[in-house]
Structures are given as C-alpha cells and as structure tokens.
C-alpha cells in the first residue's frame, strides 16, 4: 500500500516572510481533510535556525484533529526538541535529519555524523518510552555538492547502523534535487532488498518536469512511501543558495494513479487545498 506524506512544514520553512499562525493552522486543517497518511506539520527546533516555524506549538493547538485520519509528524534536531515534541499526544512521529554528508550534517544540525548518530539513538529510546515512532531522514541520500564520497552502498552502511537501533522508517532525501532516475531506482533497490523489514520513503526535490520520471524510478526500486508538498513549494534552506522545490503532491498523485496505484484521497478537498496555496504562500 502506498503512503502519502504531505509536508507543509518543508514547504513553509524557507519562506522569508512570516506566515500568520492562524493561516498556517487553517491550511493544515484543510490538508487534514484530504486523507494523507501523515502530515509533516511543524518542527521543534531553535527559532533562530528556522524562524518560520517558531509557532509550531501554537499551530498544533489550533488543529482540528477530532475526525482526522492523518497522523502528525514533527521534525526535531536534537534531544531537547524531541523531548518537547514528545509531550504532545497529538504527535505520532518525530523526524530527525541524519546526513550521509559530514559537511551538511554540520550545516543542518551543527553536529558531526557520529554525534548525530548518538542523538538518533537517544531519540529512539525516548520514542519507545513515549509511544512515538522515529522517522529518520537520510539527507544527501542521492549525492551532494560537496565532493564527498557517495554510493548506494554507502547509504546501506548508514541504514545498517539505523537497523541496529531498531528503526522502522527511513526516508531517503534528494536534498538538492540532483538525483537522476537511474540512481533513484538503484538506491531504493539496494535498500529494500537488503532491509525488507524497514519502511523506506522517498523525500525527493524536483522540478515539475522531472517529477514523474523520478517517482516512477522510486516505485521500480520498491519505494512505497512518498513525501510531497502542494504546488511543489519548499526546499531545504541549509543546502544551497537556490532552493529546489519539493515534489508537487498533485503530480505525485497523478503519477502514482497512472501507474495503477489506488489512493484513498478526497479529490474535492485536494482541489480546495490547492486553491489555498496561493494565499498561504503569497507575500501579500
């Protein structure tokens, strides 16, 4: 079964003007009507690092979750953030960005890879106590701009370390949008065959023109979990100067359905959410 994860947090985090808290909440409430498996709605990180998301707790308090079927995911960058997020029963998943690039790990969380792996272990232990599930994002999962060593087998080495910590969900991220379809298929093929007990996700960044081919390649490699953001908004503000947007959810849905996958999505509510994006992300 295909899982769709909608990522308004990722879509919003790099927007320079502050989006009003009530607007954020109204938008996420609309997304909750669509039927996504999970909404990546906010983050518990330093407001100095990501000022756009400094109101995550307030947004959470404004969400209408009484009839929502979607689960909520919040990104954390350290144990303190994980502890803060774990206090909220409404949050099901904690997401942590682990990079296969030493350079990017420092840029993103101000830690070395070895330090980040220790943090993953600490957060995993916390999740087991608090009844949460840790989703680890492997940043720079398809190569990076820093001329560091990379291969699908390197990804497998990282996955093995996470497997030893009993992690169940790993999302491989094309942080700077440079992965080609052949590499995407190979990376997922290697991981899904070596670790069939782990749920692998694709957090791809892409132009609209390149999205379909990349999604199909991930499917061929065995991926069944896909992140997206309506209209392709977003991108990582810590990677490169020029943001490469997220996979547009509407293109993702069309592609998956075109490949014969039945998705439980309310298309009328999806249409309403698409109408809202112009207002939510507009500076005016």
UniProtKB/TrEMBL annotation:
Where's the Pyruvate carboxyltransferase domain?
1-271
One Pfam family for this entry, by name? Answer: HMGL-like
Q: Which UniProt keywords apply?
A: Lyase, Metal-binding
What InterPro entries does UniProt report for this protein, alphabetically? Answer: Aldolase_TIM, HMGL, PYR_CT
Q: Which GO terms describe its molecular function?
A: hydroxymethylglutaryl-CoA lyase activity; metal ion binding
State the name under which the record lists this protein: Hydroxymethylglutaryl-CoA lyase like protein
Q: Does the keyword Transport apply?
A: no
Gene Ontology annotations of biological process type:
ketone body biosynthetic process; L-leucine catabolic process
User: Belongs to which family?
Assistant: Belongs to the HMG-CoA lyase family.
